[in-house]
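Example 146.
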Amino acid sequence: MNESVNVISLMIKDHRRIETLISQLEKSLDQDYERVKDAFEQLEWKLEKHLFVEEKAIFTFYEPQDISYGYNMLPTLTKEHNHILNTLQVMKRDIHNGKTPTNIKEFKQYLFNHRDFEEQDVYPKLEDTLTDDQKQTMLQRINEIT
Ligand SMILES: [Fe+2]
Ligand SMILES: [Fe+2]
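Predicted structure in complex with fe (ii) ion:
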C-alpha cells in the first residue's frame, strides 16, 4: 500500500470539506443568526483540527532537501496558519456579540491561496522527502485525531 498517497489524499479531501463549510457559512449570512452560528462552529472545528494535524502530525517530519527553500516554507506556513487562527478568533468574537462576520469573502480567498500553496508546493515536497516509516506514523497520528 502506498501510504503517501493516503496521507496526501486525506489532507486534500479535508481541504474540500473545509471549502464546503466556508461556502455554507457564506450562504448562512442571508439566513438567521442561529444558522450563521452553527455554520461558523462547524467550520471552526474542522479548520482548527486540520491546522493542528498539519503542524503536529505532518510538518514536524519534514526535512527539506533544499535547506534554504525548506526553512522558508515552514515559517510561511506557520505564519499563514496563525493568520487563519486569528481570523477565526475575530469572527468568533463578532458572532458571540451577535454581529455578522464581515470579512468572509476575503478569508475565503486567503484560504484558497493557502490551499494552492500546500497542494501545489508543500504536499508534493513532503511526498518526495518522507520515508515510508514516517508516512506510516503520520497516518496513525492523523487517524487518532480525525
Ligand atoms: Fe495549512
Ligand atoms: Fe491544509
